Amino acid sequence: MDASEMAIVRMVKSAVVLSVSKAKSKVKWPRHKYSLQHSQNLTCDLCVKIFTMSNPSKAVYAVPFGSELSEPVAFNGTKWVLLAAGGNTWSNYRHQSNVYHAYQIIKSHGIPDTNIVVMHYDDLANNKANPTPGIVINVPNGPDVYKGVPKDYTGADVNPLNFLAVLRGDPILARNHKKVIKSGPNDHIYVYFIDHGAPDLIAFPSQYLYGEELNAQFKQMYQDKKYAKLVINIEACNSGM
Question: Which residues are catalytic?
Fold first, then answer.
């Protein structure tokens, strides 16, 4: 690692979660200039590339605990991901397209489909309003981010009950051949949710998930030793709080 990379490491050493909202926007740091490579609230815990220097062959990875930057800790668990778009219809295009974009980034960093659960209504690609049938983008003139996205939960299956059941690794869903997070005490879980929200709730296509329900789920998962680390990013008005 050269001196310029070390400078970036010092800048991000205390980061817990780094969220960015615009792809390719510019951020000025003292003595250096970097461009944002990826957007949409992706957690550093999965070693997603956040900043790149002018030389694209060099990249810096941010992790949520500063000590891990200088003294890597052996990881003997499994990484799990839940990506959920609570919105549907063409007017809420960005909700699902952001989830598709997140999937492509996470998949490119080596997380297998068996460990990624995707919830999306799936009414964009073949929507009559879509000028490019079968293709979904998340930036103007951007690449297709829909290709290859799993259809784990679509349509009416995108609801609060299934969202919570996936998180806790519900055995009934698993027996019905539905994908769930089968995590244990050494595992890392990343959750990304996007849709509309209000104080104490986030929205799904036809139902709400309330803060008390989500908090109770996380407390139970903690008691059941379902994770070593869990990060959730909520992109919604009031963030459900």
Answer: 196, 237
